[in-house]
Amino acid sequence: MSSKDLTSVTEQLAKTKVNEKYELSFKGKGLKLNNAADVKDIVDEIEKCKTMTALRMEGNTLGVEAAEELSKALAKHPEFQRALWSDMFTGRLKTEIPQALKHLGGAIMSSGAGLVELDLSDNAFGPLGVEGLVELLKSSSCYTLQELRLNNNGLGIGGGKMLSQSLLDCHKTSCQAGKPLALKVFVCGRNRQENEGAIALAQAFKTIGTLEEISMPQNGIHHPGITALAEALSENKQLKILNLNDNTFTKKGSQSIAKVLPNLQNLEVINFGDCLIKTDGAKILAKSLKGGHTKLKVSNMLGENGVEELRGTMEAMDKVDLLASLSDDEGSADEDDVEDDNDEEEEDEAQEDQEGDIINDPELQVKGKGITPKKQAVSAKDFLAFPSPQKLKQMGRQKADNLAQELGNEITDLDKVVQTFLRISSIVTTDDVDTKESVCECAEKLIEETLKSEHNTGSMLANSILVSMGILKGEDKKYKPPSTLMGPLLVLEHLVKQPFFPKFSREILSMFMSKPHPLLEKSKEARHKLLQTLMAY
């Protein structure tokens, strides 16, 4: 490291403070810590602390040698409780990260510290990373563990199985020692657990039985895995937060969850959004919520036509306001339903919205006029002229197909499709999840369709994206790239994970996203998230 870099690191560290909770934070400093020299000032800060219960390192990148040196200082703090190490290995090889984790875990164990929280989210270390955690998770230092956050790590099924076994081993030995593991928070979203991983983790949940939060969104779990998780939930009666967003329940999974919901009266937040619950599933879940759940604050689980049933239940519970977060993205009752857009059906739908549904259950008493007024439909052409979240929502369920149809023969024009993708992505923000999901669906359709043309190769796709974003200069001098890339980067992070997205395109994008550029600097978080995903694939 040059003297200039060392000066920069020293200046950054001068801003570091220990708060009243004895947390030492280096959050977001962007430090590249490769060796002992790079990490010296951090080590000095740690050693100066008489009491350090938490160390926050997110937003930096830690190499093996630097981790080994840092561990020597960490080992001197038996009072240490919270390892807040999310986003700490950007740019590191998957083979490096397990070694670094072993050094850090070894320090915690040798110090005799009792961990309360371990957060390693947003580190793309895959199943190899879990290997670096196994010894720590099984050790007495984790008998006291209450919060385990492993979100967006690319663990896969193998990593999930190793994680489950480590927790089971920890619980067994902690019980033998008279200090049973009492884990409260388990966060493991975006880790491709699928059914096998979910079934394995369910065994750990069932055995532990003290969980208050389980968050496993976007894991590709289908009804066998959902059923296994449901059985485990019944043993965790203090559960307050249950987030299984963006997995695939169908009716079978909904039935399994519905069976255990009456036993989970401490639930405050339920998120089953984008889970293909459908009408029947929504009705089943709605009925299971009728018998109590007075603590429920937020509920997101919409099946297209089952929303009124669910709304009726919530209204009967004086909790209809909780439905504000629900979205109409679940589809019709049958997977193969085809929407008929003729004038007669539209007229019928308008009449239905005016009069509303009548639910026969006397306890619910939901009658009369519809709760939500009819919104005027928006065409793909109107939306593309002036994109907005509201217009996108008013395009209906076939929005992706309608956009593709609007492009017509231009669907094979790669540059036109990419520019359209950027245009619709401009309305995406980090706060509006529903809009992001809808835009991702549309972008998937457009990019997948254009790649079917034999003329559109992986290198051409990457080049078109970079030019359209303004990262590379294009031949069209009249074209103006977006003023901000936050939305496009967030949607692109979703696209690069899709099977149809060319590997060569990922490699080219990874190279250019790693380089400094003014437009990318304006959207650091979105860029960083994209880079992490590109590295994971």
From TrEMBL:
Pfam families: LRR_6, RanGAP1_C. GO terms for biological process: nucleocytoplasmic transport; signal transduction. It comes from the Eukaryota. One of its GO terms (cellular component) is perinuclear region of cytoplasm. Keywords: GTPase activation, Leucine-rich repeat, Repeat. Residues 371-534 form the Ran-GTPase activating protein 1 C-terminal domain. Residues 326-373 are annotated as: Disordered. Residues 327-360 have a biased composition (Acidic residues). GO terms for molecular function: GTPase activator activity; small GTPase binding. InterPro entries: Leu-rich_rpt, LRR_dom_sf, Ran_GTPase_activating_1_C, RanGap, RanGAP1_C_sf. This is RANGAP1.
